[in-house]
Every structure is written in structure tokens, then in C-alpha cells.
Design a protein that fits this description.
Two copies of one chain form a homodimer.
Chain A (H helix, E strand, L loop, with lengths): L2 H9 L2 E5 L5 H10 L5 E5 L11 H17 L4 E4 L2 H14 L4 E2 L2 H11 L4 E6 L1 H6 L1 H9 L4 E6 L3 H7 L5 H17 L5 E5 L7 H12 L4 E4 H13 L25 E5 L5 H9 L6 E3 L3
Chain lengths: ~290, ~290
């Protein structure tokens, strides 16, 4: 691919959508992996959360989110929301003219790369866990792996409330993770199967290790999704972030790409968004879907 | 009003809507106060919760809910959702040909009837507390009353998770109610300003009394809304439920009215709905709004 083609393709943004602002953890990883790319982010904050709803509703809302991104001529769609990925990926791919990357496949791949015991735990929303999507993705890659899954409905509102490093967070984490480790004490890898959970990673990791009595790796989909996006676009890794064993060339795209954020409701965005993005935000544009 | 007129008016149902299933606590009170009336209930479970969203979104969704009820020829609309009542009542009344009863006015009246100290606390969703609706309703009735309000975003998901009588519920209640009683130790009446909270009434009352060091009355809008509905319809109270000082006539409507329930998403309804209604449910019909 010549430089001119690259420039033209780079003018098209990458589209990312999520049920809310948690998906900004994926944008954060994308901006590290592909610093020159423009990104359009849509948070469906008016209809958040998706995690407690039925597959039918999740699919319907996800299709309207993807339509919004496609109308902005994105060259790639990332479904940051695990619930949408687990319940709507086939429907989204069926109608998209550009590649669609979900959260489940990259998360499953990260978990398989991390586990030594072959015993993996996954936590997520009710709709993600009920879909069985992680079990299917892991079984398809390694049928010998044992997966245990637990739905944790209270973790998203807990993260939104900002109670992420205190005694209530620890008690809630203990109640959910006990259900996991009571079923399989040999779990050595915990998948955070929801874009909200990375802000709770510390307490979840601490409690998991305490319950397991051994080290537990905590993995999420964000970095793996960014890596999948880089591969889909045929880009080389930016300076200082080359994958093991690959030669790193000079990074031609040092200019930071644009980040345009849209949301269907603006309540609490100023408070919540920077927590997940990890950098200041210029603001969200309100849209009706 | 003659018997024939009464029969005709009674053929029209009372409409009740809520962002979810919490509003069934109002239906429960209605069925006690007006046992012969038919009721149409709509839970906007696909877009729940309203409490964390902006007034604009709450108003928009509330209008579609009311439209659904009016299309079913209801003779009265009850907004079971405090968030919708606090943010959308004027907009709903402006377009409704039938009376519209919100949750805030009856809740405020109940609180004023219960308080002896004139110090009232109210808890609710972010959108309810931010609206200032309870402060306005109480000031309009008794300017000498002191109202302290605290938003409790985690109580709705806690109630939905069913963690209503345990150590986590007590810790969460203590964290929120401390914010209330730290501001005003003389509070003797706590308004549950959200239809979800009655299932947490026990733990909230216990913690409130512990923090206050004296008795605290816990009031909610459900019974007061049912009473307001009865007044709006000009009905006499059913046998055994006459208000103090009134003569109770024989109850002509011993037949239980119909209850037709609609929801915009069916996930978790079988699990959650009976908890709030307090009786078995024949089921919800799924509707798109």
C-alpha cells in the first residue's frame, strides 16, 4: 500500500460505540496503538445500560448505533460494549460494509494467552454471561480450557458511582468472585468482560488472589481490540509499542488523530468520561437515535 | 353520579407508567384503594433507568409512555416514576386530556403529615434530586419546613439485584444516609423518593434511626398516589379502608379489576415484577415505543 492510499484511508475515522462511557477504555487503548487515527465515538447514554436487557433490545439498539457510525463513513467498527458484542455481532456484521470487531473474541484470545492452568473465569453483565459468547469463543480456540462465568450486575453502577477503591467495592467483589472461585479454585485468569470493569481492576484482582490463594492474571478486551484494529488496518505498531519479536520502524504518524465524541444523553458525562478515557475531553455532541 | 355513569367511566382503565417495574408498588396500592378499577401498566424496561439521565431525555421518554397509555383510553394517568414526575410533569399535563397525577406532590404531602420536627429528608435518583421538585413541593405547602435531599444512585441496582436485607445493603444505606443526617440530625421523616426504594424500606429505616438517634418515619408516594387517584375519580373508600372520621359505606365493587401489564423489554421481568407488585402476575406484553 502506497503512502497516498494510506493517507486517503486514514482520512476515514475508526468508529467505536458503546452503551455508555465505559467504551472510552477501548478508545484509550486505540489512541495508544494507533495514535494517528481519527476516531468517532458514540455512547448510547440515553439507553444505557444494555447489560440487563434482552438480546432483542440489545440488537435493536446496537444496530442504530452502528448505523450512526457508518453514516460518518467509518472504515472500521469496534463494538466496545461486551453486551452488544455478545448479543449482536452477527446482526451487525450482516449489515456492515466495513469490518466489525467485537469485544469477546479479543478478550477470549487474551485470556488463553495468559492462563497457565487452563482454568479461566469471566465476569460480565447478565446479558453477556447469559449469551454464552465467551464460552463459545474459548471453546472454539481451545476445547480443553475450563471456563466459569458469573454475572455481576452491580459492578457497572458501582463504577459509575465512583466507589471503586473502598470497603463496599471489596465486599461486592468478594460476593461475586466467591461464586466464581467456589466453582473452580484453579482459575488463574480473570476476564473483565465489560468495558466498565477496568476501573475496578485493582479491587477485583486483589479479591481474586485472596480467594484463589494464588496469583490471578486480570485481562480485559481493550488492548486486544486495539491490536485487532491495527491488524485489520494493516498498520505497523507505533514506536516503543512493537509486539515481541517484531522489528519496530519509525512511526510516521506522530500527529494525534481527532477524537469526536457523541452521546445520546449528556447527563454525568463530564464526571464519568475522563475516568474511562484517562485524558481530558473536549466534550460530547448530543445526538438523537 | 348515577350507577350507569359510574359503570361507563369504570370501563376506562387507570393508566400507570414507570421507567421499570418499581412502579408496581403504586399498582399494589391502587388495587387496595380501588379494587374494582381496571389498570393498564407500562414499564419502559428497555430504556430503564431514567434516574441517571438528563431532564430532556426523561421528558422525551415519559411523553412516549403517556402516549401509549392515552391510546388505550385511560381516564387518569399516574406517573409512578419519581424521576419522570420530577422532570416531566408539566410537559405531560400539557398534552393530556385526562388528569395526570405525579409522585412528588403526594409524597411531599405524606411527609408533611408525618413530620413533627418539621425536618424532612428525601432520597431519590440523581435526576429527581437535581430537579429540586421535592423542595419546591414542600416549600409551597409549608415554607417553614427544612428539607435535606441526597441522591442515591446505587439503591435502584441494589434493589434489582435483590440484595435488600444484608450487610452490603446496610453499608450502602449508611453511606448515603450519613450524608443526610450529617446535614440535619433533627430529620424525623424520610421520604423514599423513588418507586424502587420500598423494597429497601426496612434497612433504610433501621439505619436512619441508628444515625438519627431517634425515631424516623419512612414514607413513600405509593399510598398517597392511590389516595389522590381515588379523590380524582370521586370514589368512596373500599370497606375497611375508610379514611379516619369518614363513614364507610358498603363497597359496591368487590370484583377485582383487570391488570394489563406492558413492557418495552422482557428481561428479568418474571424475577423482578412480583417483588414489587406483591402478588403473582399473569405476564407482560412486549411493546415497542
Amino acid at each position: 500500500m502506497g503512502n497516498n492510499d494510506t493517507t486517503m484511508i486514514m482520512r476515514h475515522p475508526i468508529g467505536v460505540f458503546d452503551s455508555g462511557v465505559g467504551g472510552l477504555t477501548v478508545v484509550r487503548a486505540l489512541r495508544r496503538a494507533l495514535p494517528g487515527e481519527d476516531i468517532v465515538y458514540l455512547g448510547d447514554t440515553a439507553r444505557v445500560p444494555y447489560g440487563s436487557k434482552s438480546p432483542r433490545t440489545v440488537e435493536k439498539y446496537s444496530l442504530t448505533c452502528q448505523r450512526f457510525l457508518l453514516d460518518r463513513a467509518v472504515k472500521l467498527v469496534l463494538i466496545a460494549c461486551n453486551t452488544a458484542s455478545a448479543n449482536a455481532l452477527p446482526a451487525l456484521r450482516a449489515v456492515s460494509p466495513v469490518p466489525v470487531i467485537g469485544a469477546v473474541e479479543p478478550g477470549a484470545a487474551s485470556a488463553l494467552a495468559a492462563t497457565k492452568s487452563g482454568h479461566i473465569g469471566v465476569i460480565g453483565t447478565l446479558a453477556t454471561i447469559r449469551s454464552g459468547a465467551y464460552a463459545q469463543a474459548i471453546a472454539a480456540r481451545d476445547a480443553g480450557t475450563r471456563l466459569t462465568a458469573v454475572a455481576c450486575p452491580l459492578l457497572v453502577p458501582l463504577a459509575d458511582e465512583g466507589w471503586t477503591h473502598d470497603d463496599i467495592a471489596a465486599m461486592v467483589a468478594r460476593r461475586y468472585l466467591s461464586q466464581l472461585f467456589d466453582q473452580d479454585r484453579a482459575i488463574d485468569t480473570l476476564v473483565l468482560g465489560c468495558t466498565h470493569y477496568p476501573v475496578l481492576a485493582e479491587v477485583l484482582g486483589t479479591v481474586a488472589r485472596e480467594l484463589a490463594g494464588h496469583d490471578v492474571a486480570v485481562v480485559d478486551s481493550a488492548s486486544a481490540m486495539a491490536e485487532a484494529a491495527r491488524e485489520a488496518l494493516g498498520s505497523s505498531p507505533p514506536v516503543g509499542q512493537s509486539p515481541p519479536g517484531s522489528a519496530s520502524g519509525p512511526n510516521k504518524r506522530t500527529t494525534a488523530g481527532r477524537l469526536d465524541c457523541f452521546a445520546t444523553d449528556t447527563s454525568r458525562l463530564d464526571e464519568l468520561a475522563p475516568r474511562f478515557l484517562g485524558e481530558p475531553l473536549t466534550g460530547f455532541e448530543l445526538v438523537d437515535l
